[in-house]
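Listing S7. Sequence submitted for prediction.
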Amino acid sequence: MEQLTQLVPLTHIWPGYAPIALVSALGYDRDEGIDVRNVSAGSPTEALAGVIGGKGDMTFVNTAFGFVARDRDEPFRMFYAFARRMNRSFAVLADSPIRTIAGLKGARIALHFGDLLYFARAPLIDEGLDPERDVKFVDWRGPLDEADQMLKAVRAGEVQAIWQLDMVYGLFAAAGSPLRRLPARNLDRLTPSASVYVHDRTVAKRGAALGAYGCALAKATLFAMTNPEAAIRLVWEHVPATRPPPGAERRVLRRDLAVLQSRLENSRPNDAPDKRWGAITEAEMVAWQDFMLATGAIRNRRPPSDYFSGAFVDRFNAFDPASVISRATAKRPS
């Protein structure tokens, strides 16, 4: 079988990214004639550098990364839309008096993933704030690595808001401190919000393998949507770092389910302009590029086709959804 190495932009696959783990855990990769290996790169920046440098074939990151990479003339493009709706936002505690992004003036904001500081600045600029003078960013690694510290700091008022990933909504809700999203007029309209990326040469030379991977990922995502608890338990089984400590299974399951469901809500293809699994449209790329240019995140305008490949969408969708749903429905907790 043809091997694909995916560089995970994290210390390990978190339960919120269950479909990534399920590609191999459920054997969907082998069913499609490929062997997918997940290797931790530690961070999105390191994962991108690894793909560019040939240390891995692909990675999954926020769409903003692809625009910045191409602005630097790096041969890197998305080929599969992973999270459909915008998965980044500013959020506050549900009872916070802050109601708008403009209301963040003077706030201390927890920055989830410092690799995306430039992206956090963009919606502030778009809403009329100066990120240098009007807010203070406080760096944190991620929603599960530092969950307790994030919860404590927000509850204590040490920070007034979070620039965060969609999974954090589930994390805080599970801990009894629900968050409220601050609307962003232009950012919220951008799709897709996270995609799977490869080097340009991989698109040109290994299209059959990429199409097979997208099909496996589509099936894994549908499985997780149908039976999220089974998905979580499979992640625990195949990613040892995610397993709950003795006596904590019920609490961790509640947390991990909330986190996964937050991501899955943003991953449904029916929320996309093209309703097929993994599809990306030129109009979506135009909207992204306009936003990134207007906020200074990138400097150069390029043809929309420079940012993505839509060549494999039919292959992504060449499976029977009913059989995936049947398998997921029949899966019982171990």
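Caption to Listing S7: primary sequence and predicted structure tokens for the chain studied. The mean pLDDT is 93. Residues 108 and 157 are 9 Å apart (CA to CA).
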